[in-house]
From TrEMBL:
One of its GO terms (biological process) is L-tyrosine catabolic process. Its EC number is 2.6.1.5. This is Tyrosine aminotransferase. Keywords: Aminotransferase, Phenylalanine catabolism, Pyridoxal phosphate, Transferase, Tyrosine catabolism. It holds the Pfam family Aminotran_1_2. Belongs to the class-I pyridoxal-phosphate-dependent aminotransferase family. Homodimer. Its cofactor is pyridoxal 5'-phosphate. Coiled coil: none annotated.
């Protein structure tokens, strides 16, 4: 029987869905275009991997491992649970998240990692053709998920000279009648910024005036350096509904265990029942996150000692100081000292490196010569910058900073000095006249 009878084509024609075709993670693509070949004579240092466990120097607290091992022996760690998560796990998250405002187990939906939480929040709050505002620079999972769903992504700017605060005017200017949500990522990947209460209030004020809900990506909650304080955005909102997305990924140093959550904050009952129900419905798409983690979660959240978190943050902060101090010496670079999370953004003054057309070329060449890989700003929609991770072991970070500095010195000298007049060149060539050389470098950068 011909397949035409049922309206089918004669030829095979199997296509990917529009969801699949519209889902695109630019980071992998950009990194692939770099065509990097680390120098085989130097150990490879990937300062690119945003996984705090990648080097093995940061280990989870022992009680976390114990909780998982004990739980694995229980039959109840193997069965299906409610798709929004087991009550005891949701209750534990509610208690753990008391700093966000009043939270009950009913406000919590457990997810498979924070990215799944963001996926859920976006798919419930925005329709195809509506727009969602995300930060620039920003972690592009928000773009990947949104665009896959047919949501238009628009950007508001962060201000590098003001510790990456939100440019409130730019935020306001992006809002229109089709804006379904604003995503705020605090503390930030890639910037390492931590917003003050006042600044969060200013952001909420914009959202309130235009009646736009907020999705707060707080996967780096509490990841702040001394002298900085983490404030949950939801704790300051009087009317703006906030869907807060977080999880155990970073703070507990277990990214692969994939346990995250969305918490609904809706003090004025603005989100219709429809939105709450929508989140419940969407959670049925994967029948809930893994039960082993859920069952161990109350112990993980309640028993992990504060000293474990403090040690982690002390380490990352000292790494930030090390990288900042070292990279400030690199001609042509401007590191921006972070206030939290686990990253640092570094401006590459590309005009000081005329050999390279853009930061991508700079970064690939640096990897090919020095075997140090950083993530180009383009991956965060922010050219002329690069991001490094701070969780690598201290000696490796120090070595990486020296190599980056060496690379800058090599390239800034060659390229700039060719164009400079004879007198200046002779100063630099005079190895004894180190001071003049340093002054010269300062001027160039
Ligand atoms: C800002 C931000 N949001 C979300 C995620 C995703 O977290 P998860 O691994 O829990 O899905 C990450 C991961 O690096 C992140 O940096």
């Amino acid at each position: 029987m011909s397949c035409r009878l049922r309206g089918r084509k004669e030829e095979w024609d199997v296509r990917a869905s529009s969801l699949a075709r519209n889902t695109f993670n630019p980071i992998r693509d950009i990194i692939e275009t770099l065509r990097i070949q680390p120098n085989p004579n130097k150990s490879y240092i990937p300062l690119s991997v945003g996984d705090p466990t990648a080097f093995g120097n940061l280990q989870p607290s022992e009680n976390i491992i114990d909780a998982i091992c004990d739980t694995a022996k229980l039959n109840e760690s193997r069965n299906y649970g409610p798709t929004i998560g087991h009550w005891d796990a949701r209750q534990a998250v509610a208690e753990y998240s008391a700093h966000q405002g009043s939270v009950t187990a009913d406000d919590v939906i457990l997810c498979s990692g924070c990215s799944h939480a963001i996926d859920l929040a976006l798919s419930v709050i925005a329709d195809v053709g509506q727009n969602v505002l995300i930060p620039r620079p920003g972690y592009l999972i928000h773009k990947t998920l949104g665009e896959g769903l047919g949501i238009i992504i628009k950007y508001y700017d962060l201000l590098p000279d003001k510790n990456w605060q939100v440019d409130l005017e730019s935020l306001e200017n992006q809002i229109d009648e089709n804006t379904a949500a604003i995503i705020v990522n605090n503390p930030s990947n890639p910037c390492g910024s931590v917003y003050t209460r006042q600044h969060l209030e200013d952001i909420i004020d914009v959202a309130s005036r235009y009646r736009v809900p907020i999705i707060a990506d707080e996967i780096y909650e509490h990841f702040v350096f001394s002298d900085h304080e983490f404030t949950a955005l939801s704790s300051l909102s009087k009317d703006v509904p906030v869907l807060t997305c977080s999880g155990v990924t970073k703070r507990f140093l277990v990214p692969g265990w994939r346990l995250g959550w969305v918490i609904i904050h809706d003090r004025q009952n603005i989100l219709r029942k429809e939105v709450r129900n929508g989140l419940l419905s969407m959670s049925t798409r994967i029948l809930g996150p893994n039960t082993l983690m859920q069952k161990a979660l109350p112990r993980i959240l309640k028993e992990t000692p504060q000293s474990f978190f403090d040690d982690t943050m002390r380490f990352i902060e000292s790494q930030a100081r090390l990288a900042y101090t070292e990279l400030k010496k690199a001609p042509g670079l401007r590191p921006i000292m972070p206030q939290g999370s686990m990253y640092m953004m570094i401006e590459i003054k590309t005009s000081s490196f005329p050999k390279f057309d853009n930061e991508l070329q700079f970064i690939s060449q640096m990897c090919n010569e020095q075997s140090v890989l950083c993530i180009p700003g383009k991956c965060f929609n922010y050219p002329n910058f690069m991001r490094i991770v701070l969780t690598v072991p201290e000696d490796i970070l120090r070595e990486a900073c020296h190599r980056i500095t060496k690379f800058c010195e090599d390239h800034i000298l060659k390229q700039h000095l060719k164009k400079m007049d004879h007198d200046v060149v002779s100063i630099v060539n005079d190895e004894k006249n180190v001071k003049s050389k340093q002054n010269l470098l300062k001027n160039i950068t």
